[in-house]
Amino acid sequence: MDAFAFVHGSNLYELRPKPGQRHQAAREHGMHALRHFYASVLLDAGENTKALSHYLGHNDPGFTLRVYTHLMPSSDARARKAVDTLYSDTLSTPDGPQTAQED
């Protein structure tokens, strides 16, 4: 890979043609690839879909979500951590029928 290519995920984006070839006018090259890379970097950093939609000029955040959902990090770990934090922050005092009748 030379200095005019980058890899993101399993995709190789070459920004200059091989010797003797012309630039291709395909969407996966040039500005479209750069836009997709920009979106994937922001999603990986935790940016929300509505903000990304605005940055990319999309009118509908749902469109942005449909296009880039495969790049969004899994929320499983975040959900587990949120529930674990909720329960770890509770007081360790008993909360049962005996507690209610101690008055």
From TrEMBL:
The keyword Hydrolase does not apply. SUPFAM superfamilies: DNA breaking-rejoining enzymes. One of its GO terms (biological process) is DNA integration. The keyword tRNA processing does not apply. Keywords: DNA recombination. It comes from the Bacteria. Residues 1-84 form the Tyr recombinase domain. One of its GO terms (molecular function) is DNA binding. InterPro entries: DNA_brk_join_enz, Integrase-like_cat_sf, Integrase_catalytic. This is Tyr recombinase domain-containing protein. It comes from Streptomyces avermitilis. The lineage of its organism: Bacteria, Bacillati, Actinomycetota, Actinomycetes, Kitasatosporales.
